[in-house]
Structure formats: C-alpha cells, structure tokens
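Sample log: AraC family transcriptional regulator.
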Amino acid sequence: MGVPLRRRSGGSVYHESTPVAVVAGVVESAWTGRVGRGRPLRVFPDGCVDLVWDGRGLTAVTTVGGVLRHELPPVDWTVGLRLRCGVGGAVLGVPMTDLAPGATPLRELWAASARRAESRLAECATPAGARAALEALVAERIHDVELDGLPVAAARALRSPGARTDQVAADLGVSERGLRRHVRHEVGVGPKELQRVLRFHGFLNRVEAVARKRSSLADVAAELGYADQSHLGRECRRLSGVSPGALVRSWTGRNVPD
C-alpha cells in the first residue's frame, strides 16, 4: 500500500514509526492515520503489502499492479504495518499472484487467527494499543514460517538505477527463471515489473523536492535511471494514471487531492 504524497492532506494526518525488533525482519514500518473524515484515497504502487486495521476489519492491501482508490472510513484513526517488499507471500501464506489488487480481508487467509485478532483490535482504545496487537499478530504468524531471503535481496538490488535483472539473478546465484518465480510468489509480479514499480516509487519520494523547486523532473528522471523525462512521463501515467506534473501540483494542493 503506497504512502500518501503528503503526510497532512484534507484533514488527514499520516505518521510512520519503527516496528518492534521482533518483527523488524519482515515489517518495514508501522503507521497511524488520523482520518478526519471518510473519503477516497489514491494509493500508489510500492511493491509492499500493508496489514490494515480500520476499526471495522483487518485487511491485507496490495497495490503492485497500479494505482487504486481506497476508501478511508469515517473513523478517528487507522493503523497498519507495511511488510517489506519480498515477504508478502511468506507472511500471508499464499502466493501473491493469487491476490487481486486492493484490500483482501485477512479472515479469508488466516481464518480463526484473524477473527481473534479483530476481536483484540476492536478492544484497543488507542492507535498505540492497536499497533502492538498487530505486531503481536505478525510475530505469532512468522514464528514457524521459513522466510525466503532471495526476493528481499532482489528488491533491494532492483532499486538501484540501471540494475539489470539478469545480473541481479547472477549475483544472487539463481537463473532468471528462478528469480522470476521467487519474486512473483512474494510480490505478485516479475522482477522487471517490480523494478518499474520501485523506480516509480522513487519518483514519488522526490515529488516534494520538485514541488519545492529543489529539483526538476528532468534531474529526477536522470537520477532514477529513466531514459529521459518523457520516459518518466510514460511510466508515471501507466502506474498512476496522471502525469508527473499533475502529481507535483497535487502535492501543492492545486490538483486532485490525495
């Protein structure tokens, strides 16, 4: 589940924090959202899976295939854990290729354990308490799970501008076909598509710098390994539905809200 362009937008506040050590191997960050009011949120692809409690249910949200509209419920707060790119299949217990983009109720994947977790979460009066309950759930889940480190290492390597999938496979000691199989199971797409998503996510992390005139779209395109600014534009439209300039204007509040 992608990160909002702005941490404060439309009355909502988004805050990330470091997960507890026992789950840090599979959880990239914990987050809290102060919703303010129910509304649709644009969620951009980032290659990760978020476990989300919104006060009504516990879901796994994945967006690797492209931008989606996620409905924020009219609640005071939501909490989530963002799983590291490359561990989704192992933690959820299903190949990521089996999940459709968007929110999948964890009851469909974890049955009784998810229902027990929802009961505990419903009793939490604060985001901190709900976050602790989520972390305990993941810690219990991964206790007997053998994690595949190869997709995590592949995702790390594919973030580098100019990375080649054949070289990444060779560096990790597998064939390109083997790399594709591992990555598809844990992420939902193959290495080349994941590379495109990770590069686009790198652009999203630089939207603020462009909006504040500290960088330009051309400079960002070159820094991230796009062939040129036009290449960035095509990929941005494919993965977000709008142009890079529209996302920059959105950050400044002069376009479609997050």
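Observation: The mean pLDDT is 90.
Observation: The beta strands are 8-9, 12-17, 27-34, 39-43, 49-53, 58-62, 68-72, 77-83, 102-105.
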